[in-house]
Write a structure and sequence with these properties.
The protein is an alpha/beta fold and 286 residues long. The protein is built from 12 helices and 12 strands. The strands form 2 sheets. Strands 1, 2, 3, 4, 6 and 7 form a 6-stranded antiparallel sheet that branches. Strands 8-9-10-5-11-12 form a 6-stranded mixed sheet, with helices on both faces. Helix 8 (185-194) packs parallel to helix 9. The two termini are 27 Å apart. Mean pLDDT is 88; it is low at 1-32. The structure holds adenosine-5'-triphosphate and magnesium ion. Adenosine-5'-triphosphate is lined by residues 46, 49, 51, 69, 71-77, 89, 239.
Length: 286
């Protein structure tokens, strides 16, 4: 039997999304803690089904951590909990806590908009807005800076800087007004990463960011993710063992809603501590 959940999450109003507050500003101003994400006894239920069990994880600042495990083990659920996407569903209940840079992101005074500002998310399939490349980059920035006025030159700089960071600038600089959806999938995924950057997030969550890409696109996006480490804390779900080995510094193995092992990636793959981890990475199940 599981204990009764302490908190019932409700969807926030859309208006609430756009409100800023001082508490959230404090979150932004405190980037020096060594731990980016710290969870304590995190449990999550979809209705009566428990998907996460007592998750206690420390994700270090400025590192790439991969999250692996068989289908349905709760990787996406965990990731979505870290930027409060799950709470859109009124049948999701959660207890325990998730601290990001020392602040509980589920505390009542924390605005969802600030959580989203601090923690960006990239999904399996690139999901650019059906507007121009330029507008895609500026969308989040405008949303989060409604009270400030930026000149066209300022905006041009923001667009250029973000596209340079994802190594797309040279390719698209002459077609910024073209529709983002006309780009290749690899370019769209890079754009989806780029559009997070002007908002200056500290944490980037990526749920199988390369799964829709061909091997060349995968290599290019992996290279980009590697480039972005240190500037950002990156937590990336992947089904691809080779990708977890190549592209992450620490690795978490989950099974049936529980964390089995969290170690340096090389250690986890060479000398796994648990039989379940060894069985999984050797392809015996999953
Ligand atoms: N919105 C939802 N409503 C109800 N149950 C859900 C929902 N999302 C996920 N689940 C269930 O929670 C469990 C964990 O799912 P989750 O998507 O987190 O797994 P995953 O490890 O990301 O799997 P995959 O590798 O296939 O993406 C599964 O049993 C799934 O069926
Ligand atoms: Mg998933």
């Amino acid at each position: 039997m599981t204990s009764a959940p302490l908190i019932t999450l409700k969807a926030d109003s859309v208006d609430g999304l756009y409100k800023m507050n001082n508490t959230a500003q404090q979150i932004q101003d405190e980037p020096n803690s060594e731990l980016a994400i710290h969870t304590t006894n995190l449990n999550l239920w979809y209705g009566t089904f428990q998907a996460l069990f007592d998750i206690n994880l420390d994700i270090k600042q400025g590192r790439i951590t991969s999250l692996i495990g068989p289908s349905g083990c709760g990787k996406s659920t965990f990731l979505r909990s870290v930027n409060r996407i799950n709470e859109r569903l009124d049948y999701v209940r959660i207890n325990g806590s998730i601290d990001v840079f020392g602040h509980d992101i589920y505390a009542p005074e924390v605005e969802l908009v600030q959580v989203r500002k601090q923690i960006g998310m990239v999904f399996q399939r690139p999901n650019p807005l059906p507007t121009s490349i330029r507008e895609n980059i500026l969308y989040g920035h405008k949303l989060h800076n409604r009270e400030q006025k930026y000149s066209r030159d300022d905006e041009n700089d923001i667009v250029e800087q973000a596209l340079r960071q994802v190594l797309l600038w040279e390719k698209v600089k002459d077609r910024l007004k073209r529709k983002a959806t006309d780009l290749s999938l690899e370019e769209q995924q890079k754009l989806c990463i780029a559009r997070l950057l002007p908002v200056k997030p500290q944490v980037l969550l990526m749920d199988e960011p390369c799964s829709a890409l061909d091997p060349k696109g995968t290599a290019a996006v992996e290279e980009l993710i590697w480039e972005l480490r240190e500037q950002y804390t990156i937590l990336m779900v992947t089904h691809n063992m080779a990708q977890a080995r190549r592209a992450s510094e620490e690795c978490i193995f989950m099974l049936m809603g529980k964390v089995v092992e969290h170690s340096d990636t090389a250690e986890l793959f060479v000398t796994p501590k648990h039989k379940e981890t060894a069985d999984y990475i050797e392809g015996r199940y999953g």
